[in-house]
Amino acid sequence: TEAALKRISETDERVKAYLLVVGEQAMEEAKKLDQLPEGELPLLYGIPGAIKDNMVTRGIRTTCASKILSNYIPPYNATAVNKLQDNRFVLIGKTNMDEFAMGSSNENSGFFSTKNPWDLERVPGGSSGGSAATVAAKQVPFSLGSDTGGSIRQPAAYCGVVGLKPTYGLVSRFGLVAFASSLDQIGPFTRTVEDCAIVLQAIVGHDPNDSTSANVEIPDYLSALTGDIKGLKVAIPKEYFHAEGADPEVLEQVRNAIRVLEGLGATVDEVSLPHTKYAVATYYLLAPAEASSNLARYDGVRYGVRAEGAMNLVDMYKKTRSEGFGPEVKRRIMLGTYALSSGYYDAYYLRAQKTRTLIKQDFDRVFADYDVIVSPTAPTVAFKSGEKIDDPLTMYLNDIYTIPVNLAGIPAISVPCGLVNGLPVGLQIIGKAFDEATMLRVAHAYE
Ligand code: GLN
Asked: Where's the active site on this chain (predicted)?
């Protein structure tokens, strides 16, 4: 904990991974843990970690990087945070993100943007950019992020660390501030696949406080890391290698990684996920639709900031929301309310739901014959700050490889696979629902 805080004080002025560092509290907790208990130590005993600022932490400000929550102090912990605490981790602080997790670059934070530790002129990715950057900058050995359309995997790729999005329902969403409830999942950032398996083990499990939490048997993830993937069946989706805007050098690194898997004894075949081309459009209807409903609760009454000087109730709502939300959040609320409005519902929301099913069926078909699907995590390496911020459509297209996984509810991990122009590339390994163990085994064997 001491080393983590020292490293943060040395580097975070440049990286800006944190919205809040709770140094004193962390040292207090760490000192308590110096007194070792009898018997076997819990999984994360004394290990410092950071939490994305959209997971509530009791008594510790939680803002979602939004001005509208800039004064919000939650009275309870997210289940994932409680589980880390049960395993005796030390909370170091809350990491920066795109406001309400909407974005792919961290530039939508309502406060400031986190920088990529590999090149401070570049974005760390998003929306969990702070959680990726803090692990990459070796400030902490692990952090938690959330992934609705790629927000763990894409920043993990851009920052050269490991990031895992679990199967929908494996990790409780209780206390994760809702963006798009049918897509959101919490997952770990770490530097190695082994660490990733340890953190995952700590946060999974059924939670009666989350109605979408799955009641499934939890395997021992560490013992899945055998190093042996002989005979495993790997599928390569051909659509992912012809995606618009994909950097050929990134694809080359991914092809090299696939050859490594072959060298380890896996069999590799090309497959088709024919509805891939609809994924981005489907996501950018469904996610804003859910967000527009979820964000209705920020009305200046129940949570966070209330605007001054309003003349009446409606005026107070308007002023609070106009001043409190940033431009991307407003764009999503407008897109979402439009898609859900009567008269347009059938044409947009309903159609997107049907397409979502087709995308899920694409994966079901492939997973009937294969153990994992392998692809790039993102079409490029980390881009320059400012490069895409004025062009939301290009920014949205960046999510092409990650979004289908959320729509299907299945797990995926991003592991570093080489460099292009000195910047890290991410390899995405997609698993069957609730088969994180096989996915981790492949990632570990490759690493
Ligand atoms: N980039 C995507 C978006 O802006 C994904 C965000 C996320 O996963 N939270 O919606």
From this structure: 52 (charge relay system), 127 (charge relay system), 151 (acyl-ester intermediate)
d(CA 382, CA 368): 34
Distance 426 CA to ligand 1 centre (A): 17
What's the CA gap between 404 and 401, in Å, rounded?
7
What is the sign of the dihedral through the CA atoms of 113, 117, 122 and 127?
negative
C-beta of residue 75 within 8 angstroms of C-beta of residue 58: yes
Query: How many angstroms separate the CA atoms of 220 and 434, rounded?
Result: 12
Q: In the beta sheet, which residues pair with residue 122?
A: 384
CB within 8 A of 222, min separation 6: which ones? Answer: 194, 197, 198, 201
DSSP letters for 396-421: HHTTTTTHHHHHHT--EEEEEEEEET
Q: In what order do the strands lie in the sheet with 162-165?
A: 18-21, 90-95, 48-52, 142-147, 185-190, 162-165, 412-420, 423-431, 372-376, 233-237, 267-271
The Cβ of residue 139 has, within 10 Å, a number of other Cβ atoms equal to 29
For residue 381, give Cα distances in angstroms to 40, 45, 135, 190, 402.
42, 35, 18, 19, 14
Instruction: State pTM to two decimals.
Output: 0.98
Q: Is the CB of 104 under 6 A from ligand 1?
A: yes
- Ligand 1 close to Cβ of residue 109 (< 6 A): no
Catalytic residue among 131, 146, 151, 292: 151
Token reading at 246: 């994909």
Please count the other Cβ atoms lying within 10 Å of the Cβ belonging to residue 343: 6
Burial class (CB in 10 A: 0-12, 13-18, 19+), 48: buried
Helix (H, G, I), strand (E, B) or coil at 445: helix
Dump pLDDT digits (tens) for 234-275: 999 999 998 888 999 999 999 999 999 999 999 999 999 999
What would the mean pLDDT of 180-193 be, rounded to a whole number?
Answer: 98
